[in-house]
Amino acid sequence: MSTDRSSRYKTPVYKKDQPDDSYKFKPLPGPVGVYPFHLDIKSIIPDIHSEKIIFHMVGDTGSLRNPEFTRLVANAMALQCAESENQPPQFLYHLGDVVYNHGEVTEYDRQFFIPYQQYPGPIFAIPGNHDSDVNPAAVQPYKSLEPFVKVFCSPVQQPVDFSLIKDRPSMTQPNIYWTMETPLATIIGLYTNVPKYGIVTKEQRTWFAEELVTAGKQQPDKMLIVCMHHSPYSADINHSSSIAMIEFLEETFFQTGVRPDAVFSGHVHSYQRFLKTYPDGFTTTYIVAGAGGYDELHPVATLDNPQFSGDHPLFKNVVLVNYCDNKHGFLKLVIERKEHGPQLTGEYFSIAHEYTTAKAVDAQVVERFSVTPGKKLTHK
Fold first, then answer.
1. What is the pTM of this model?
2. Quick check: 171 and 124 in contact, CB under 8 A?
3. 174-222 confidence digits (pLDDT tens)
4. CA distance 104 to 142
5. CA distance 123 to 126
6. What whole-number distance in Å separates Cα of residue 135 and Cα of residue 313?
7. What is the distance between the terminal CA atoms of the chain, rounded to a whole angstrom?
8. Where are the extended beta strands (E) located within 76-151?
């Protein structure tokens, strides 16, 4: 793959002439917890640090055809937990697509439990489109997200009955969309369903607006992070940007007068970091981190590719700052209390493809970045 970046887009792109696949929408399972679906991280990690939180984040770790990349990414994160000289990462936040292609029970061991057997911390997750889809040829009929709910949304922590790995109990997330409360940040996890560019139900939109208002009252003393599977902004040649998700987010931000400090997503199998600057000077960082294991990576589009365009009013003042589209990798995030409030710093690590036969490998830093807390919208 060419490394010449001058011929590639430096903005988001959209893919032209895409068919409407909204018919793939799947009804949502009911929540297991109580509204408004909050989970205090201290209920899972009682000794979570109040001044500094370190954790991993990645999406699209599952893979049917080549599980080696899934294993290497998982092992690299586990190695960081074991070898950190000071405070190690304490958990993993998964951005969806744990299991391909249809979130089946029979694939969870091979694609999730076995490769992540050595990861020492809890693993939280939001569902991806493949976790949510249903295999019409399945021998045992099942509903959308039934296996995901058993793994991540159990009423109590317990061994997962369909897994051979019994030392990773189920997680107790209250719903498939939910909010994680930490001492330094509020992390809102959205569910964007099955279609290629995502769909958010009316009920979830109402919930999201309420969560933004609640979290906005704590800004800038606590950071506000939004996680979702479908990428609002992307410059890749497979999915590209989701206009529907951009419109959904911006409408809700304007409605509530609250904007997050950062938005993380998967779906696109690469790493991309965008910076969006609003007219009032507020900036929001958008990061795609979906190169967690699926063997097919999604490169950034070239300027001469007629299938894509960067000319869209929703892309105004959005810049692609950096990317890695030819290697698998993951994020290591640190939120630390500073003199003027919490600050998020991140590192994106990549793993070279020539290491596919190794048991474990040190990941290489692609870039380091920082996000400082912003302010509320001026019109509110």
1. 0.96
2. yes
3. 999 999 999 999 999 999 999 999 999 999 999 999 999 999 999 989 9
4. 9
5. 10
6. 38
7. 47
8. 92-94, 123-125
